[in-house]
UniProtKB/TrEMBL annotation:
Belongs to the FPP/GGPP synthase family. Catalyzes the sequential condensation of isopentenyl pyrophosphate with the allylic pyrophosphates, dimethylallyl pyrophosphate, and then with the resultant geranylpyrophosphate to the ultimate product farnesyl pyrophosphate. It comes from Hibiscus syriacus. Its cofactor is Mg(2+). It holds the Pfam family polyprenyl_synt. The keyword Transferase applies. This is Farnesyl pyrophosphate synthase 1. Keywords: Cholesterol biosynthesis, Cholesterol metabolism, Isoprene biosynthesis, Lipid biosynthesis, Lipid metabolism, Magnesium, Metal-binding, Steroid biosynthesis, Steroid metabolism, Sterol biosynthesis, Sterol metabolism, Transferase. GO terms for biological process: cholesterol biosynthetic process; farnesyl diphosphate biosynthetic process. Gene3D superfamilies: Farnesyl Diphosphate Synthase (1.10.600.10). InterPro entries: FPS1-like, Isoprenoid_synthase_dom_sf, Polyprenyl_synt, Polyprenyl_synt_CS. GO terms for molecular function: (2E,6E)-farnesyl diphosphate synthase activity; dimethylallyltranstransferase activity; metal ion binding.
C-alpha cells in the first residue's frame, strides 16, 4: 500500500524541505544528521500528500492517479482504502516520534502536521462542486481563494518552509509574513491548474470560449502582476536567507509548464 501511494509523484514538497533548510544555513555544509532529519520531514509531507490524494480520489470518484488506477479502484482494496488513509496519516506521527521526540521543536512539528486547514479546504471544495444541480451563487473568487488557501497552499507551499524554519531554530510566530507570501504563491500557482471536467466535448467548448474571451491574455497579465507583487514582498523581507528560500519557490512556479 505504501509503495503504491507514497513515492509515485514528483516529490517536490518533500525535496523542498531539504532545499529550504540548505538555503537557510546560508552555504554551511550540512552534516549527515541534518540531511537525514530534513529528509524525514520531507517524507512526512509526502505522506500527507498521499493520504489526501487517496481520500480525494474516493470523494471525487476518480479513476486514475499518476497514470495508474486509484487505490480504491484496485479490486482487492475498495473501501478498505479509507482505513489505509488512517494508516498513512498515523505513519506521520510515528516518523515524528521516532526521529524528533527529543528535539526542542518536536511540539512545533506536531502542531504543523495537525493543522486542519487542508481538510477545511477539501470540505469547501466538495460543498461547492457537489454532483447534482449546480448553485452558481456558490462560485466566487473569495470562495476560490479560501479553497486554494486551505486545501493546497498550506501543505504544498507553507509546510515545507515551516518545517525547515523550525529545524533551523526559528520561531514561526516571527514569520507570519513568510506564511502570507507562500499562501499568495499557492493561490497564484493554482491559477495554472486545468479545467475540471474530463469530457472531451466539454473541454472543446470551454477551450473555444477561453479563446473567444482571450483568457490566455488575461491570465498572462494576472501571472505577471502576481509575480511582480510577490517579488516586491520577498525583497522586502529582512533576511537574505529567507528571501532565497522564497525565491526558490517562485522560480519553480513562474511560467510553469506541466
Amino acid at each position: 500500500m505504501l509503495e503504491y501511494n507514497v513515492p509515485g509523484g514528483k516529490l517536490n514538497r518533500g525535496l523542498s524541505v531539504i532545499d529550504s533548510y540548505r538555503l537557510l544555513k546560508e552555504g554551511k555544509e550540512l552534516i549527515q544528521d541534518e540531511i537525514f532529519l530534513a529528509s524525514a520531514l520531507g517524507w512526512c509531507i509526502e505522506w500527507v500528500q498521499s493520504y489526501f490524494l487517496v481520500l480525494d480520489d474516493i470523494m471525487d470518484n476518480s479513476h486514475t492517479r499518476r497514470g495508474q488506477p486509484c487505490w480504491f479502484r484496485i479490486p482487492k482494496v475498495g473501501l478498505i482504502a479509507v482505513n489505509d488513509c488512517v494508516l498513512l496519516r498515523n505513519h506521520i506521527d510515528r516518523i515524528l516520534k521516532n526521529h524528533f521526540r527529543g528535539k526542542p521543536y518536536y511540539v512545533d512539528l506536531l502542531d504543523l502536521f495537525n493543522e486542519f486547514q487542508t481538510a477545511s479546504g477539501q470540505t469547501i471544495d466538495l460543498i461547492t462542486t457537489f454532483e447534482g444541480e449546480k448553485d452558481l451563487s456558490k462560485y466566487s473568487l473569495s470562495k476560490h481563494r479560501r479553497i486554494v488557501q486551505y486545501k493546497t497552499a498550506y501543505y504544498s507551499f507553507y509546510l515545507p518552509v515551516a518545517c525547515a524554519l523550525v529545524m533551523a531554530g526559528e520561531n514561526l510566530d516571527n514569520h507570519i509574513d513568510v506564511k502570507n507570501i507562500l499562501v499568495d504563491m499557492g493561490i497564484s500557482f493554482q491559477g495554472q491548474e486545468n479545467y475540471g471536467k474530463p469530457d472531451p466535448a466539454n473541454i472543446a467548448k470551454v477551450k473555444a470560449l477561453y479563446s473567444e474571451l482571450n483568457l490566455k491574455g488575461v491570465f498572462e497579465e494576472y501571472e505577471s502582476t502576481s509575480y511582480e507583487k510577490l517579488v516586491t514582498s520577498i525583497d522586502g523581507h529582512p533576511s537574505k536567507a529567507v528571501q532565497a528560500v522564497l525565491k526558490s519557490f517562485l522560480i519553480k512556479i513562474y511560467k510553469r509548464q506541466k
